[in-house]
């Protein structure tokens, strides 16, 4: 932290000096005064290309305990942070009063669902029994109708026809006898053996027998022509109606049974659903008490994550409302630690997995811990991006090489990622280098003026930049180069691109976004 402050103040002083120098140059309109120019003498020396970021210590191996109660609930008991717990110790207890009331209501719903399920089961049995009874009765009715049809065709009608024929035969015999008697009576009457009255009686008897014969024949004709057809059609209709009644009965029986089965399934499903809900409420009540899954040191998640303006995390405490799946407590299971930092996108190209790291823990002054870059997030941190859309930082994890009991989760730290470490190289301050037509250029003192010289550069540490080629020990470079020179128009190869280093001879070109960023 102290190193960052020194760097900020130093950069501010340098920028202020550059601004004052440029302002003086514009006001006088003269060339740079060598005696007053800010310069840097080039000489070989050690150079470390690094990135320094603030971060937080976290446990590498830990159990994250979350709230598994649905919705929002409040904490009624919370174990003190820093407590050493054993497996099975109570860590957090949440308010379960609302869940208990809901459980009682749910038990009533379960009882009602069970009663409805039993009723549906019995209703199905009744529907199946009634369906079987109705079908049997319809089948019996159809069987009787078929028997009646056969009985009439093969029994009743032949008997009636035979009876009618017998009556005709008997009437014919009786008529024959009556005729014979009348003939004999007429003979006796002629002989005066019988009276006229007796003769008249025999004549009447003969007429009656004739009428009986005619009636018997008419009855036979009625039986054959009308009664038989009517009775046959009636019995055939009875068979057809019985068949259709049987089909209706079967369909209705199937419909009643299917309806009862559907009702049973629905009641069974409702019963299971209500029981599952009751079980869920019981499990939710059990989850209101959170026990330690292993031995460890209690660390509140809010302490490990860090608070501040960006996260806006309220410290964990009793009475606080918490949401489902919210992280509550971290239980480290080992002494190994990580350092978590955020790297700005401008430095992302410099950092790679496996690079060495030096970690300084603020709570342990004078001690340094070595480590390495282990993981770089593929996407920007969503929280920082939400707070400031123009700020894109990438979460990075640093593994510490050695375990140390003095390092605890939640401690603040400074992480120095060592990108390059040179024992003896050329370097100049970063403000001394301009990009002219895409080429790194410095202004080197030559007798009474500064002239531009193209150089080959490496990486920088935001203070010094590595000069690979183009400078010699003892060269004096200008720390306030003319910024307008960085805007010289790029020309196609083969054309004269030489321009005077005098700023008065430089035209004002259009600069690309990349050139502005490089500046």
Short summary:
This protein has 519 residues and is an alpha+beta fold. It contains 7 helices and 22 strands.
Written description of the protein model:
With 519 residues, the protein is α+β, with helices and mostly antiparallel strands. It folds into three domains: 244 residues, Elongation Factor Tu (Ef-tu), domain 3 (Beta Barrel); 77 residues, OB fold (Dihydrolipoamide Acetyltransferase, E2P), CATH 2.40.50.100; 187 residues, Helix Hairpins (Orthogonal Bundle), CATH 1.10.287. Helices cover 45% and strands 25% of the residues. It has seven helices and 22 strands. A six-stranded antiparallel barrel has the order 2-12-15-14-13-16. A four-stranded antiparallel sheet has the order 7-6-4-10. The protein has a three-stranded antiparallel sheet with strand order 3-11-9. Strand 20 and strand 21 form a beta hairpin. The N terminus and C terminus are likely disordered.
Main features:
7 helices; 6-stranded antiparallel barrel; single chain; OB fold (Dihydrolipoamide Acetyltransferase, E2P); Elongation Factor Tu (Ef-tu), domain 3; 519 residues; 4-stranded antiparallel β-sheet; alpha+beta; disordered C terminus; 3 domains; Helix Hairpins; disordered N terminus
